[in-house]
Design goal:
Length: 340
Amino acid sequence: MSVQVDTYKSTLNTSNNQIPIIDIGDLLDGKKEAIIDVSIQLKDACNETGFFFIINHNIDQNIIDSSFEHSEKYFSLPMHEKMKVRQNRHQCGYMPPDVAVHNDTFENRETALNTQRSEAFKFSFDLDSDDPDFGQNVRFRGFNKWPDPKVSPGLHKSFMDFHMAFQNLSVSLLEPLAVSLDMPSDYFNRFFARSSSMTRIAYYPAIDVKHDQISLPGHRDSSFLSLIPPASGPGLEIMMKDGQWIQQPVVENAVLVNTGTVLVRWANERYQATPHRVRANSAEARYSNIFFLYPDVSLLLECLPTCFSETNPKKYKPFTFGEFHAGYCERNFGYAENWD
Ligand SMILES: [Fe+2]
């Protein structure tokens, strides 16, 4: 099939798409040979860029459009209304501007702390009240804070439809990803049976374009995979292997995917997490909804046996995502550690 590649208007060089495009239609149709085919493409993409597009992903565009409509409505609410669901220690809820501290960024401190006044709303799965993790207050396990449905009618369903659609899509990549790392195809499955994935609904207000401010400083994601449908406007920049920043190209009907630090550690740095940042200098507000695939918070993640040897020893001790993510949040979002 022909694929339409375009870019948002940008001052950066975006003339060539350097991000691989992987067709996962046959994989989702259950064709066995597609696991191998996609795994080969994933291996190349993860080695070369750490970012790739997936097409024929079967996500209903109405689900994506609806999530953006509700995002726009939510962020236009008065501050006191948004603050009623202020982010808690599970990272769920509303994140007001100027609170993130970004200690993991490789930008200098002045740049990191002088970012645009962006806002976010984050959530995970809704747990049943009889779920053991709920009873034990297990961190990062679905303590969502939802706005009053009288104030934001339809938001909860729309956002959860988005979350579940992207959870299912990202899980469909686990088998080819395992094969790409020379592991049995079902290796990752059990680690995501009780996933702690999160969606981040972000808002970058319109600003005076003369300021040329970083909106989200350069960083690597803490996820296993991150899935990014096209934002409402330009801003995402990706660092290529040669150190050059490129603006994200836009591929029609595609979802952009990037690898995160959990995968990097699990695979002993056989794959990398590529730095990226947001510079949304625009006279129009920018909305971006991103899904982060996170594993079970409690299971021990040990270096994959295919990713170390006598000459390439393990670089990381076994870890749980719960511990790892708590450290990440403390370093970067420490302000929310003590909130309810
Ligand atoms: Fe990111």
